[in-house]
Amino acid sequence: EVQLVESGGGYVQPGGSLRLSCAASGFTFSSSAMSWVRQTPGKEREFVGSINWNGGNTYYADSVKGRFTLSRDNAKKTMYLQMNSLKPEDTAVYYCARGWSGMYDYWGQGTQVTVSS
Q1: Nearest Cα to Cα of residue 14 among 102, 109, 86
Q2: Residue 1 and residue 92: Cα distance in Å, rounded?
Q3: Are the CB atoms for 60 and 28 separated by under 8 Å?
Q4: Residues 87, 89, 91, 95: what is their CA dihedral angle, to the nearest 10 degrees?
Q5: Quick one: which of 113, 97, 112 has its CA closest to 47?
Q6: CA 27 to chain centre
Q7: I need a surface site. Which of 45, 53, 59, 116 has the fewest CB within 10 A?
Q8: What per-residue confidence (pLDDT) applies to 79?
């Protein structure tokens, strides 16, 4: 059974940082591209970033470029999203997904990130 489990969400003030984790199981993580996608109520899901199988290639949405960093540890079957300089507009439920930039086949349950003073 494929499982993607996000963690690390929470409440942070503007300008702060959070690191999200996505723990994978049930598939060959080390050969899979992975992505983060976020969603706010009433809006469509928004692409955040993708990372290729070995972490050598990443791709980010313009809205997070320079502030967010994707990384992965294939030995731990875990992907990370380091979020710095957070803004209120980054508030969303963050999902990890298997796949690259819009082409996903499995999703996690999501973790809430709230940026507010």
Answers
A1: 86
A2: 27
A3: no
A4: -110
A5: 97
A6: 18
A7: 116
A8: 98
The residue with tokens 């976020």 is 38
pLDDT at 47 over 90: yes
Give first-to-last CA distance, the chain, whole Å: 40
Q: Are 23 and 5 in contact (CB under 8 A)?
A: yes
Q: What Rg, from alpha-carbon coordinates, does the chain have?
A: 13
Q: What tens digit of pLDDT does each residue of 91-102 get?
A: 999 999 999 988
Calculate the CA dihedral of residues 25, 112, 46, 57 and round it to 10 degrees: -50
